[in-house]
Amino acid sequence: MTRINRTPPKSAGSRAVRRPAAALVCAAMLLAAVVLAGGATAAGPATPAASALTGQASGAGPASTFTPGPCAKPPGPTPELKSARCGRLVVPEDRAHPNGKTISLSVTIIPAKAAIPKPDPIVWLAGGPGDDAITEIPWAIAGGLNRNRDVIFMSQRGTYTAKPSLTCPVVDRWAEKTLDMPYDAPATGRAYVAATKKCRAQLLKKGVDLGAYNTLESSDDLDELRQALGIEEWNVYGISYGTDLALNYMGMHPQGIRSVGIDGVFPPPLAGGVASWASAGEGINAIFKACGEDPKCHRRYGDIGATWHRLVRKYEAAPRTVRVPVPGVKGKVAVKISGGMLLQWTVSPGTHLAGKVPADIDALAHGNPVPVASTWAAPKLNPAGIGVLSNGLFSGVSCGEWVPYESEASVVAAGRMAFPTFPHSIWENAPNLPFMRQNCAAWKVPNVPAEVRDVTHSTIPTLVVDAQYDGQTAASFGPLVARTLPNSTVVTIPNVAHVAFASPSPKANACTQQIARSFFNTPSAANTGCIAKVPPTEWEITKR
Fold this sequence. Notes:
Layout: E1 16-19, H1 22-35, E2 55-57, E3 64-68, E4 85-92, E5 102-110, E6 122-125, H2 137-142, E7 151-154, H3 169-172, H4 174-177, H5 186-205, H6 215-228, E8 234-239, H7 241-252, E9 257-263, H8 273-293, H9 295-301, H10 304-317, E10 320-325, E11 332-337, H11 339-347, H12 357-365, H13 370-377, H14 391-402, H15 408-418, H16 424-427, H17 436-443, E12 455-458, E13 462-467, H18 477-482, E14 488-493, H19 506-521
Parallel strand pairs: 6-7, 6-8, 8-9, 9-13, 13-14
Antiparallel strand pairs: 1-12, 2-3, 3-4, 4-5, 5-7, 10-11
């Protein structure tokens, strides 16, 4: 495996400077301590972003090239492709060897609805790590981002429509095959590692350099796309892991960026297990607090947080197998309820459906496991989720950028800080990142240079969007990164969870989308007045 490197950073001028992560990490831990008590082809009129549909990006070694062509086919229906311009960007797989192997990334440009679009398009950065931006086109367009600007989507390296695509169904099926095993049991972890080893072997057999799939390389890909399309300046909107990528991109290539929106912030210095624990504690406790402050919710469910803590401890000590109906699945499905499973369920899908969480926990406490177990099993049994996530990019980022820069002890300590009464077996596995350290020992990629964890200092106008119930990227992370982004606007969208731009709440969505559009029109004066009009959480109140 070759050592990871990248082209030397371009001059940052006065817009962005990279700084060590230590100060931000300390601030975050202090803050956490307080908080956690279909194949379309190119068509349509010419627009600024599409005016240079064949181009090259300059740099060390051979230039990256963009060639127009048919639109890549995402796994689901995407009617927006009918009016799109598409093509592929060819870049070096490993920029340490610019004359070596190349890879190609699918590019889709959704034209602006306005007759005369603004000259600065928006580029959308997907989450994950491992999601493909092409699959998220419906979200961005539903939010009206293309009202007066073209919106550009590029598959990050290794994702579904990229070539090569580093997807591995064998890993995706691990969650289904272990439904009847305790979530954080050693045997469950061994099954995950075995699947990871098979995935690694499959990709190595195809000649993939696993160490080349990371945030720094993806940041370079973005800048080379901008140059190849002949775009002088564009705007960025990143969600979830896409915020980590956006912040790195701002630091590495500030030239050419007019403004940036980040939604569901994963700060590069904190990304990994420590951040996951802080987020889980903050998001889950926000739901319990809100229920306690609502007269109807509190009257019906009492101290639902205390009930939840008791159930997590109970089922971690004595996991229980239940058989429950799952929509779309014949017969009943065996599901093991353990403490780790209940905690992960509350993070996701729980926080995304916050109004149902107290009712579902109360049902479990009174002997009805169906609401929790069924919603836990449903996504794992959905065939639409198999072979879509880029396991190669996910492991490239988590194993090259997160695990090397945080100790096992620090992850356990963060778990203890978030949930002090839980056993060690739960603290070992951060939410959304189970068995990450064992998985990375099997993945075997070199460390990405430590600059990937740097704080981003930048004067680029930035919209920072947080969500009240976000159990995946804590709401407190937004104000934290804004400390070194002096031209930032920080907003917290109430009553929703991770990625407010595309939450299950239509009115919260509309507010976030309105704020984003107003920000891109006037970065210094985003219209945030709709926040006060977002309706309160509608709690599901069941009969006793």
